[in-house]
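User: Could you go from structure to sequence for me? I need the amino acid at each position, not a summary. Structure tokens:
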């Protein structure tokens, strides 16, 4: 093989590599967006479809799905409209007080409501910091978010660390680590989420380990 052939082969490889990387950078955000929208669409329609099928079951599936989506959005809007008025808030508060008296339902509802309140737009401190922890075994590091602290019966400080899955950060693992096993970084929460959603494509050039905050 001549030098000219080698040069041509190197140029072809560089061209293919550049175009493939460019294509991945375009398709990955689209794929993640499609996945999240698909999950959201399924969640919205699965609630109404069983209620509409006995009445409108003769309609085509795509029409029935569209009606279910519109009906779900309308229901969410009506509930939101009710909660903004004094009487509506009193009614919802009364309903909550009834649910909280049911033995099993009260635990599920209270935990769900607390999680929703924690991750609501009004609470920007749900994720306190981006941390590094050993998971799933020693020597293997993952990015997580410190969400809270507590002290065990021995007086030792423990951190609650949420380790999201990639590329869907809405699911993951809640892990408990001793304070000396949690390494705090200078990464912002936004940078941490970008790294997880992109599967490591969007990575800051460097990060620093910070001293742990006072517990």
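Assistant: Here is the amino acid at each position, in order:
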């Amino acid at each position: 093989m001549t030098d000219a052939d080698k040069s041509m082969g190197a140029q072809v490889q560089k061209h293919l590599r550049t175009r493939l990387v460019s294509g991945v950078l375009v398709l990955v955000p689209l794929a993640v967006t499609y996945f999240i929208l698909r999950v959201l669409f399924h969640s919205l329609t699965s609630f109404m479809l069983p209620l509409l099928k006995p009445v409108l079951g003769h309609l085509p599936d795509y029409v029935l799905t569209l009606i279910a989506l519109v009906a779900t959005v309308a229901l969410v809007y009506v509930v939101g409209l009710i909660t903004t008025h004094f009487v509506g808030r009193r009614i919802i508060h009364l309903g909550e007080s009834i649910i909280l008296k049911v033995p099993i339902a009260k635990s599920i509802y209270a935990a769900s409501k607390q999680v929703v309140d924690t991750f609501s737009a009004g609470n920007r401190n749900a994720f306190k910091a981006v941390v590094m922890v050993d998971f799933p075994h020693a020597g293997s590091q993952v990015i997580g978010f410190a969400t809270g602290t507590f002290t065990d019966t021995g007086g030792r400080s423990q951190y609650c660390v949420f380790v999201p899955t990639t590329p869907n950060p809405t699911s993951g693992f809640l892990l408990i680590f001793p304070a000396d096993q949690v390494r705090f970084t200078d990464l912002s929460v936004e940078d941490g989420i970008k790294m997880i959603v992109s599967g490591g494509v969007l990575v800051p050039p460097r990060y620093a380990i910070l001293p742990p905050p006072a517990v």
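One structural detail worth keeping in mind: The first strand starts at residue 129 and ends at 134.
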